[in-house]
User: Which sequence fits this backbone?
């Protein structure tokens, strides 16, 4: 399966390393869309990809699926048009806090018969949420995220401090680069306005910790994720990057596990 990659940041580079560098048997990143060809020119020789700066030429290249690994802003700009041409795996799920964008993308995906894949990112358990409400009911979904104090607050503190309480839509509005998980959790569960989010600055931790609680007809569940960062980028969760690779593998495999 040939992959077209939008963006060449931390997760994009991770995909190139894991897929192209390791010569994956069924996956290959063949095309990369960037804004600055000169800045990323070395990718062509390092990974055997073709660089594009124009969306039209990029989509016309030999690719089967597009992986968006850019920014929320880029995703908002490109997603409605890209999904008319190709299946899309969206990493910047925070873009989906925009209800008008969701309506446009859903309409285009249905009209042009293309799929939008949303990886689970820095958390897991989304299959439970989806299964629990298929023929049942979810009563509540909450997310508590603890972050190293220095990453969310501009002052030294000795004890943990709540820096945000609200819903998923409000969380991604305040923290557009770091709370994509609130949106994917909302999509899998009870929606953006009914997904409760708390963010805590904690001076005693050195990595992000996400705690998800779910209640419903099925019973109740709780998940805790203590995530290591990518070695090359401490702002990006290693699990979030791995979830993209896992989603791509599940797309082409005939044996499906979970959900």
Assistant:
């Amino acid at each position: 399966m040939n992959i077209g990659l939008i963006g060449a940041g931390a997760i994009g580079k991770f995909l190139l390393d894991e897929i192209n560098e390791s010569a994956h048997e069924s996956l290959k990143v063949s095309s990369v869309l960037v804004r600055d060809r000169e800045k990323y020119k070395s990718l062509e020789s390092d990974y055997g990809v073709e660089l594009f700066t124009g969306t039209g030429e990029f989509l016309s290249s030999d690719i089967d699926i597009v992986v968006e690994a850019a920014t929320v802003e880029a995703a908002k700009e490109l997603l409605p048009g890209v999904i008319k041409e190709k299946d899309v795996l969206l990493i910047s799920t925070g873009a989906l806090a925009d209800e008008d964008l969701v309506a446009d993308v859903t309409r285009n995906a249905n009209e042009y018969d293309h799929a939008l894949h949303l990886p689970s990112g820095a958390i897991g358990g989304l299959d439970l949420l989806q299964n629990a409400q298929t023929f049942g009911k979810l009563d509540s979904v909450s997310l508590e995220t603890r972050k190293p104090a220095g990453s969310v607050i501009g002052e030294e503190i000795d004890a943990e401090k709540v820096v945000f309480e609200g819903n998923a839509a409000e969380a991604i509005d305040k923290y557009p680069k770091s709370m994509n998980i609130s949106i994917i959790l909302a999509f899998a569960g009870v929606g953006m306005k009914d997904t409760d989010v708390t963010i805590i600055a904690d001076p005693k931790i050195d990595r992000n910790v996400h705690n998800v609680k779910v209640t419903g007809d099925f019973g109740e569940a709780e998940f805790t994720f203590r995530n290591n960062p990518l070695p090359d980028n401490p702002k990006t969760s290693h699990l979030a990057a791995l979830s993209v690779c896992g989603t791509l593998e599940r797309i082409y495999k005939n044996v499906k596990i979970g959900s």
The chain has two domains: 2-121+239-252, 126-226. Residues 168 and 192 are 5 Å apart (CA to CA).
